């Protein structure tokens, strides 16, 4: 049976191959032929498969495919018969649309021609109407122009009539309305009308202002204004005090009503503000009049050839201004301010008077400052007086920060650059003087222990005081850019002083234990401490934020990282200087430690060469005592610690003795313990020398000095172990080194075994080395 079935299967395969070849020969293209053959093959494979029993499905499959083929042919015939009908219908619809479009285009052309003819006919009418409207517009503007002129003439006649009848309030009201009309014509292009109105307003305003000013001055005279000297309290008020007060209030109120017109007239006379000076509103009219006699006196004394007009004495006119402010303060608060409040004027009388007097001082300083640029002494004196004047103005007279004082005079470019150069020159000269002084490297508080914690030498303390004075001088400047310029100068001076310290240190480096060398170290530490405190100061933090935005122009390129640190307040403006000072301090401490260790190592040579393996045991000695060979080393350590404790400030001495302890720990461990063998007596003697003599030397400076000698302490623990625990520890260490050693829960690890003995610093390999140093015990 197998052979016939195989033959049948081969026959079926041949049929399929024949079917594929037949289809391939009948196909129109290679791609379509391949797809069709694959589809037929997949269909037969799906319906029949490789099972011979499924061949009975072939007849049903053939009938199904025949039926589907017939249905497809019918659909094709139906579609081919309906397509010509649809195409003809579409063509007829398109033809109808074309005809309608041509009809619409014809109508559009007719309508466009008609409209064009109509527009040509109506253009004449439009032109004539436009001429009429233009004439009407011109007439309307002329009428308004004439109405304005009439209004101006009306107000002018009214003011004249009011003044003739002494109706001052009505005249003031008419002038105010004329000022309102002036403001309403600001956007107008009628320049001649504006000029006429402004001239008319100026004419009547001057007449009215002169009249009121004359009356106001008469009333002020009865109050003894101006107060050239401190006012004295009269025993009893004058009989007509109430009448005088009423006249004063009336005149002040009337002058305030003229403020609008006065501002309009004086607006063209305003001068641009100086650099660093904000624009301020004009002075109120009553205050302007009150300032007139003071202004005359000021110009009389401080201009021209008067002896009081002395370039070397700027304090004369500045002090005079402050005196007038103080003398007039009570009168402004008690008499003028209540009137201003009742009139609804949001003005502080005392501040307004100060503003007016400051104008006199500003004009005088702006005139004198450029004349002093070539005389350093006089220029420095001027700067000092200006700063002192500004300080007293803000503190004593409570002048608001919102209004400019006189500091903007110092911020003009030429004056400011001169100020910076003089500050730099004077600072460098003072540094030279302080470093060459006899007591430059001694502290003036050396005999007062409570005060002299930092043990700063005089030169360092004087230098930081100089920087602090510079800070106070520029702290009140209104311009952050100017403040940053001074900050850059301070950083330059600090770096220059650091370089000078480095130079002096190199000269003293041959004797690092000398008082002068320690004084240099104290100076570097003191400057670093003060700069660190300044970095947290609110003033320098504000400058730090200003440096983020404008600092690159003054402080140089900062870089993205440094800018980010400054903006987030993580860094400090003095970070670079602090790093340099820290490096200098670390270098000097290193040299100091090297010198002490050289001395200690020299004194410890005999101690390191003791025969530790042959010393008597502890039981053979009545009492333990310090090794005689260790005495020079201990005395050397004690003397150096006491000496440097007196010469170094506390933070530096803390760093010193801790560094010394660290180096000494390594020295004794490496040069003494690891280079010798120990018997029981030698180990006990070493432990006694360390725990009862060396460690207590450092016990004056901390509670647990042994924590700074971990190598020595733990080595003594291992060396002084009894024989039994030492053998057990050695066994644990040896087992841990074997390759096939598996750590179990019952067997402790070498680290845990050492920890139980109090050994945490030394590694198991170090413990093994130390155990080998007591080989004389372990061989017993």
UniProtKB/TrEMBL annotation:
Keyword field: Coiled coil
Keyword Signal: no
UniProt region (Disordered), positions on chain: 1-36
One GO CC term, this protein: Dsl1/NZR complex
Residue runs in coiled coils: 55-82
Biased composition (Polar residues): 24-34
Single Gene Ontology BP annotation: endoplasmic reticulum to Golgi vesicle-mediated transport
Gene3D superfamilies associated with the record: Dsl1p vesicle tethering complex, Tip20p subunit, domain D
Family: Belongs to the RINT1 family.
The protein's name in its UniProt record: RAD50-interacting protein 1
Native source species: Culter alburnus
């Amino acid at each position: 049976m197998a052979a016939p079935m195989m033959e049948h299967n081969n026959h079926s395969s041949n049929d399929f191959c024949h079917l594929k070849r037949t289809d391939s020969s009948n196909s129109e293209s290679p791609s379509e032929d391949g797809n069709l053959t694959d589809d037929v093959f997949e269909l037969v494979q799906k319906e029949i498969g490789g099972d011979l029993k499924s061949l009975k499905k072939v007849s049903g499959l053939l009938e199904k495919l025949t039926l589907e083929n017939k249905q497809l042919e019918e659909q094709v015939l139906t579609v081919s018969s309906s397509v010509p009908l649809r195409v003809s219908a579409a063509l007829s619809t398109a033809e109808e649309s074309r005809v309608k479009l041509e009809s619409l285009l014809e109508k559009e052309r007719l309508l466009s021609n008609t409209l064009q003819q109509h527009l040509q006919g109506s253009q004449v009418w439009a032109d004539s109407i436009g001429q009429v409207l233009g004439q009407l517009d011109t007439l309307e503007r002329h009428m308004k122009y004439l109405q304005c002129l009439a209004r101006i003439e009306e107000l002018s006649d009214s003011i004249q009539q009011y003044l003739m009848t002494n109706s001052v309030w009505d005249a003031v009201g008419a002038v105010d309305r004329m000022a309102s009309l002036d403001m309403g014509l600001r956007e107008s292009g009628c320049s001649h009308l504006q000029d006429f109105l402004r001239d008319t307003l100026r004419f009547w305003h001057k007449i009215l202002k002169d009249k009121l000013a004359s009356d106001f001055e008469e009333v002020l005279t009865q109050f003894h204004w101006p107060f050239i000297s401190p006012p004295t309290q009269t025993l009893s008020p004058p009989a007509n005090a109430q009448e005088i007060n009423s006249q004063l209030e009336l005149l002040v109120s009337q002058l305030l009503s003229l403020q609008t017109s006065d501002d309009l007239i004086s607006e063209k006379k305003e001068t641009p503000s100086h650099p660093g000076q904000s624009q301020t509103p004009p002075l109120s009219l009553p205050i302007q009049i009150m300032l007139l006699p003071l202004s005359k006196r000021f110009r009389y004394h401080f201009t021209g050839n008067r002896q009081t007009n002395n370039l070397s004495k700027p304090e004369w006119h500045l002090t005079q201004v402050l005196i007038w402010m103080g003398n007039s303060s009570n009168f402004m608060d008690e008499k003028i301010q209540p009137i201003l409040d009742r009139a609804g004027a949001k003005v502080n009388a005392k501040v307004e008077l100060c503003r007016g007097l400051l104008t006199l001082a500003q004009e005088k300083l702006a005139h004198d400052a450029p004349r002093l640029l070539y005389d350093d002494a006089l220029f420095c004196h001027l700067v000092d007086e200006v700063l002192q004047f500004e300080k007293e103005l803000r503190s004593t007279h409570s002048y608001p920060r919102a209004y400019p004082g006189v500091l903007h005079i110092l911020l003009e470019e030429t004056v400011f650059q001169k100020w910076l150069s003089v500050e730099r020159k004077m600072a460098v000269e003072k540094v030279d003087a302080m470093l060459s002084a006899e007591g430059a490297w001694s502290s003036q508080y050396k005999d007062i222990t409570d005060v002299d914690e930092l043990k700063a030498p005089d030169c360092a303390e004087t230098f930081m005081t100089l920087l602090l004075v510079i800070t106070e001088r520029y702290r009140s400047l209104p311009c952050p850019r100017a403040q940053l310029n001074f900050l850059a100068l301070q950083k330059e001076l600090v770096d220059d002083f650091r370089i000078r310290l480095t130079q002096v240190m190199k000269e003293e480096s041959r004797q690092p234990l000398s008082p002068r060398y320690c004084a240099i170290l104290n100076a570097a530490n003191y400057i670093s401490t003060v700069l660190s405190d300044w970095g947290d100061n609110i003033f320098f933090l504000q400058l730090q934020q200003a440096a983020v935005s404008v600092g690159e122009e003054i402080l140089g390129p900062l870089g993205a990282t440094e800018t980010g640190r400054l903006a987030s307040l993580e860094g400090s403006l003095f970070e670079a200087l602090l790093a340099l000072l820290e490096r200098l301090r670390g270098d000097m401490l290193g040299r100091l430690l090297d010198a002490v260790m050289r001395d200690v190592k020299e004194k410890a040579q005999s101690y390191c060469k003791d025969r530790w393996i042959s010393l008597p045991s502890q039981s053979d000695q009545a009492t333990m005592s310090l090794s005689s060979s260790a005495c020079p080393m201990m005395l050397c350590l004690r003397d150096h610690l006491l000496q440097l404790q007196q010469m170094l400030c506390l933070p530096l001495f803390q760093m010193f003795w801790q560094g010394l302890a660290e180096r000494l720990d390594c020295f004794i461990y490496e040069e003494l313990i690891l280079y010798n063998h120990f018997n029981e007596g030698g180990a006990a003697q070493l432990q006694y020398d360390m725990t009862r003599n060396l460690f207590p030397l450092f016990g004056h400076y901390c509670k647990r000095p042994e924590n700074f000698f971990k190598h020595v302490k733990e080595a003594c623990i291992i060396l002084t172990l009894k024989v039994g625990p030492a053998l057990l520890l050695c066994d644990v260490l040896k087992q841990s080194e074997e390759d096939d050693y598996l750590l179990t829960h019952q067997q402790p690890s070498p680290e845990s075994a050492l920890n139980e003995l109090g050994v945490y610093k030394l590694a198991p390999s170090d413990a093994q080395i130390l155990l080998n140093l007591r080989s004389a015990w372990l061989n017993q």
